[in-house]
Amino acid sequence: IQQMLVRTHELGVSDFAIVRQFEEEFSHFQADDFKLLRLMHDIASKRGEQKFLLMMQNNTELRPTGGYVGNAGILTIKDGEVPQFYLSDTDYLDDEIDIMNKYSDREIVKPRRLDQREEKDYINPPEPLVRFFPEYKWRFGDANWSPSFSQTAVNSEKLYNITFSQNEEEDVVFDGVIAFNPELVIDWLKILGGVQIQLADGVEFTAESFDDTPQNLYPGDRINGQVITEKTYIVDAIAQQVRDKFTGASFGLLLDMVSTLRHNVQDNNLMFYFNDPQMQAKLTQYGWDSELKPNRYDYLYVVDSNISRLRIDHMVPRLIDYQVEDVNNTYVATLKLSYNFNLDKEKTEGLFNEKIGDYTTYTRVYVPEGSSMINYDGVEDVDTFNELGKSVLGVFITVKPNTEKTVTLTYVLPFIKNEAGYELVMQKQPGNEFAALRVSLPMPENAEQFLPAKPQINETDNIAVWQMIFDEDQTFVMNKK
Questions:
Q1: Average pLDDT in the 170-197 region?
Q2: Which 3 state secondary structure label does DSSP give 334?
Q3: Does residue 424 carry a pLDDT above 50?
Q4: In terms of domain of life, where is this protein from (predicted)?
């Protein structure tokens, strides 16, 4: 109890009766839960008004930080209260101005043609998008092209203002960016229970059904016996109901919500960026800045970017097969990326107005800086460049429905054999819940310590092999005792 009192006193919630009443709930808190409470307290206790750009990412159309930004809005916090909060469909913002105005005390400027602001306001789109889409102008929905969330956040703020304001005087000055994937909403619905909206009286949106919930209802759609007569955006209505349930939740339920938030932050299903350097430094201190990790030795980060304009990543399970060989005291890495486009016609019937086409991703592979490409197979060409402190291999990969495609990249790692051991840091892409992993590494002589424990040992080739579902960041270590 005394330890909880000390910690909660720092957070400004040191009421003894509350802490004693919820002693059991607090006892389940992890150290990182208190870190998240501290972060939330720092945000809520700031005087005046703060504005955060909200981005809901759809991971069935994978992008570097989680998925296509299909929904966006503004969260306003004023003296610890939330007077304004909305989401809107980024693809049809002209149709959704009424929703935006509903939760705002000022008129929201309609999206305007891109030629209404001066050319100097534009920012150059990513080169691969220009290469794939001729005459492409960077859309807000594609803002999260960088796997560095701080870069994505800065670009998102700029693109939001270029898209929605007529001139620089009307630009929104943001305090930061908050991005989240559907997994966060699903976890909240598990705790809060289902929600209902006025349009769909009697229909409950639950954790089990949210994945299949469309952003919009279209003329001719039926819901609870009603025939929809005009296109209707429903995500914001669901979000407002979740917000109402959250604000009316019991203290014990709120503690559960904190643990759920912490879990999603650690899994990169919830990402923050602050324009305040001190707040951003705290994120980095906690390891929650969603940046590429530093590496002392080997490193691998596979980042898929679905540019098919189709939300089908859940139909494309993939295997990341990484092998390292000792070739004359030099380490040669072979990475095989296999994509199996398993098109289930029954599940996709009615989801698209046109025939589902190929699955295409521009995939970047981040490896230790100084690595050198020596061979590739399965693609026409490989882009090689450096960014974010890593060497990068970039490839366009196209997979036809009901086929499998494997791309092989072979490169020399920039360090020589280490007799003492081996270490590999592998990052999981936010939102990519569709990958399995196979890692094969050369064992140092007399290796006895392994992380993760108990790999398969091939004594003939002197290698250790791990196989697993790739659902979190992994660090592979082999050492002598």
A1: 86
A2: strand
A3: yes
A4: Bacteria
**Cβ 171 vs Cβ 117: under 8 Å:** no
φ, ψ of residue 103 to 5 degrees: the values are -110, 25
Q: Name the amino acid, one letter, at 454.
A: K
Output the DSSP codes for 467-478.
EEE--S-EEEEE
Judge whether 467 and 438 are in contact, CB under 8 Å: yes
Helix, strand, coil content of the chain in percent (nearest 5): 30, 35, 40
Q: For residues 151 and 303, is the Cβ–Cβ distance under 8 A?
A: no
Are 170 and 111 contacting, i.e. CB atoms less than 8 angstroms apart?
Answer: no
Distance CA 291, CA 288 (A): 8
- pLDDT above 90 for 233: no
Report strand pairing: 421-427 vs 298-303: parallel
Q: Residue 1 pLDDT more than 50?
A: no
Residue 190's Cβ-count burial label (10 Å; 0-12, 13-18, 19+) is middle
| pLDDT interval class at 357 (50, 70, 90) | confident
* Paired tokens of 153: 């956040």
In a 10 Å sphere around its CB, with 0-12 CB exposed, 13-18 middle and 19+ buried, how is residue 290 labelled? buried
DSSP state of 408: E
- Alpha helices in 168-232, H assignment, sequence order: 182-192
Q: How far apart are the first and last CA of the chain?
A: 41
In the block, residue with structure tokens 């082999």: 478
Domain(s) of CATH 2.60.40: residues in the chain: 298-480
pLDDT in tens, 132-144: 987 778 889 899 9
CATH number for 298-480 (one of 1.20.1280, 1.10.10, 3.90.1570, 2.60.40): it is 2.60.40
DSSP assignment letter at 116: G
- What is the Rg, in whole angstroms, of the alpha carbon atoms belonging to the chain? 24
Residue written as token pair 């939760």: 103
Dist. CA 20–CA 30, nearest whole Å? 18
Amino acid at 384: T
* Interatomic CA distance for residues 333 and 298, integer angstroms: 10
CA 18 from centre of chain? 35
Residue 347 neighbours by CB under 8 Å, 6+ apart: 315
- The structure's pTM equals 0.84
* Residue 308 near residue 357, CB atoms below 8 Å: yes
Q: Distance from CA of residue 343 to its chain's centroid?
A: 24
- Flag whether pLDDT at 94 surpasses 50: no
Tokens found for residue 86 = 């909305």
